[in-house]
Amino acid sequence: MPDLIFPAVAPDPDPPARPARRRLRRRWWGLILTLLLVGAALGLWFGLPIRTVTVDGNVRLSPARVQTLAGLSPDFGWLYYGAWRARGLLGSPWVQSATVTRTFPDAVHIQLTERTAYARLRRLDGVVVAIAADGTVLPGALNTAKLPLISGWGPDRLPEMLRVLRALSRYNVQSVAYSPTGLTLTVAGKEASSRVWTGDVQALLKYAESISMYPNHKISIYPWGVSVQE
């Protein structure tokens, strides 16, 4: 039986170099495109700098301080300026809110709403600081001597005391002192001050009219009624 004869199989030729050249060409084009995009970005950065900055609504903060907080500088690209950069404004306790508007090609306008001193707070260490209506401490506040003074001990009741001051804003409340058992208000009258005590804030708000009905008296307010002493 004759031997089986198989034809010789030629070895695979070397892979064509064309795909490799194509890959190399694509890499070069990718690099060139990247360089073009970087160049365009740099061109927009230096070609559209921030040249005009206006600030409105600022009273306590100077325009220069506002610009610093907002990260505004002449060398910063107008196109790339945004909320992420302006967020530094909220780092100031004096800034309640801010609106930043860009105007093509180089202007930025900042509209501020600043906090104002609403009351004074005597801290547990005895230091008196000015605070806004939301309880934010306002360092360096001026002309605060006539603002109502909040003091007390025990669990913190500052938000509740600020709510009381807002509710009694039509009365000339000079001070409010709180403790775990209640709170005491001093209200200025025409001839003397009234002292108002209550162990229940809701009762105080319910019978608040008694403050004006009995000026210059000692008033105790309970959930069931009001007691008045000379």
Q: Give me the Rg, rounded.
A: 36 Å
* Sheet of most strands: 8 strands, mixed
Tally the beta strands.
11
H and E string: HEHHEEEEEHEEEHHEE
Query: What is the overall silhouette?
Result: elongated
What is the terminal separation in angstroms?
139 Å
Instruction: Give the low-pLDDT segments.
Output: 1-6, 35-47
Average pLDDT number:
84
Percent helix, as a range, is 25-40%
Task: Name the beta content range.
Answer: 25-35%
Count, helices = 6
- The helix-and-strand class reads alpha/beta
If strands are numbered along the chain, what order do they take across the biggest sheet?
5-4-6-7-8-9-10-11
Q: What would you note in describing this structure?
A:
The protein has six helices and eleven strands. The chain has 230 residues and is α/β, with parallel strands linked by helices. It has an eight-stranded mixed β-sheet with strand order 5-4-6-7-8-9-10-11. Strands 1-3-2 form a three-stranded mixed β-sheet, covered by helices on one side. The protein starts with 17 loop residues before the first helix and ends with a strand.
List keywords for this structure.
230 residues, alpha/beta, three-stranded mixed beta sheet, disordered N terminus
Q: What's this model, at a glance?
A:
By secondary structure, the chain is an alpha/beta fold. It is built from 6 helices and 11 strands. Helix content is 27%, strand content 28%.
